[in-house]
Amino acid sequence: MSNGIRPTAYPVTGYKTASSQRGIALITAVLITALISIIAVTMISEQQLDIRRTGNILDRAQALQFALGMETIALLALRKDAENNKTDHRMEDWGKPVQFPAPDGAEGDMISGRIEDLQGRFNLNNLVGKDGIIDTGQLQQFKRLLIELDLPPGLADRVADWIDSDSTPQGMDGAEDGEYTRLDPSYRAGNTLLVSPTELLLIMTGEEYQKLEKFIAVLPGRKKTKININTASREVLASLDYVTAADIDELLKQREQLEKQNNKGFDKISEVFDLPGFKTLKSKQGKFEKYLKDNCDVVSNFFLASAFAQFDKGEVRLRSLIQRTTSKKKTHKVYTVLRTQGDY
Ligand SMILES: [Ca+2]
Ligand SMILES: [Ca+2]
What we know:
The chain is of the alpha/beta class. Helices cover 46% and strands 15% of the residues. The strands form three sheets. The protein has a five-stranded antiparallel sheet. It starts with a helix and ends with a strand. The protein folds into two domains: 1-121 and 297-344, Pantoate--beta-alanine Ligase, Chain: A,domain 2; 122-216, Ribonucleotide Reductase Protein R1, domain 1, CATH 1.10.40. It has helices at residues 2-84, 136-148, 154-163, 177-180, 206-212, 234-238, 245-262, 276-284, 288-295; strands spanning 98-101, 110-117, 122-123, 216-217, 227-228, 296-297, 302-311, 314-325, 333-341. It is built from nine helices and nine strands. It is elongated, with a radius of gyration of 34 Å. The site of one calcium ion (CA) has 5 residues, from loops.
C-alpha cells in the first residue's frame, strides 16, 4: 500500500515546489512593480512640487517687476508735478492712489500704488543738529507731539539719545549704552541718524511704536527739514510752538476750504498770518513769524511711495523713499533713496 502511495506522493511534492517558486516570482514581480510605482509617484509629486515652487518664484519675480514699475510711475508723477507748480498739497495728482489690473495676471490680480508726503510728518532726524548735539527746539516739539498722541514725552529724550553722538543720557528719561547693554541680548545705541523708523522698536515698546509710526519719518541727511502745512496732520501741526488748538482748527478750516473751493492748498507760508489767530501771534510774539518760516513750508522734497502687486501666487509690497530736488533752471531730480519690501 505504501509503495502505491509513494510514486504518487513524489510528483505531488515536485508539483508543489515548482508552484511555490512561481508564486515567489509573482510576488517579487508584484513587489518590484509596487516599488517602481512608489518611486515614480514620489518623483512625480516632487517634480510637481518643484514646478509649483518655480512657478511661485516666477510669479513673485513678475509681481516685483510690477511694483518697481509702480515706483517709476511715482517718480514720473513727482517730476511732472515739480515742472508744473511750486507747492505741494493734498489735491495734487501725485497724492491720488492708483490701481489697475495686472497685465496677463489671473482674475482679480491688481497693481496699486500711493504716494505720501513725508514732510507732513515729524522728521526724527531733526532732533539732532549737524554737530551731533540735540536740537532742544525740535526735542520740545517732539515731546508735544507725543503728548498729543497720549504717549510719554520722555520717549523723545530716548530717541534723541539714540541719534546724538555722545553717551550721556538726556535728562531724566534719556537712555544710552548703559541701559541697552544691560538687556539680554544686549546692544548699543545707534549714535547716528536713523535709517528706518522700525529702529524705534529698539528704543520703545511695539505698542508705543504703532501709535507713533504714522506721524513720524526719518529723512536722510543732516539738513533740517520743514513741515509742509498743506499735508501735515492735526497732531503734527499741533506740535508746533506758540500755536493753540484753536489756531490749528482755524488753519485746518482754511486749508479745507482752499482744497474744496480752489482745489489747492496754501501758496505761501505767509498766507497763514492772515488768519486771525496767527495774526495775533505774529503781532504779540516777536519770534513767531521767523519760527513758522524756519520750521514750516508749502513744498516737499521727500515722499514715500507704497506699491502692492499681485500676480497669480506672487505678492510684493514695496516701499520707496523718494527724494526730489528742484532747481530754478527746471533741472529737477527725482530719485529713490531707499527701497524696502515690507515696512518703511
Ligand atoms: Ca506740487
Ligand atoms: Ca546722549
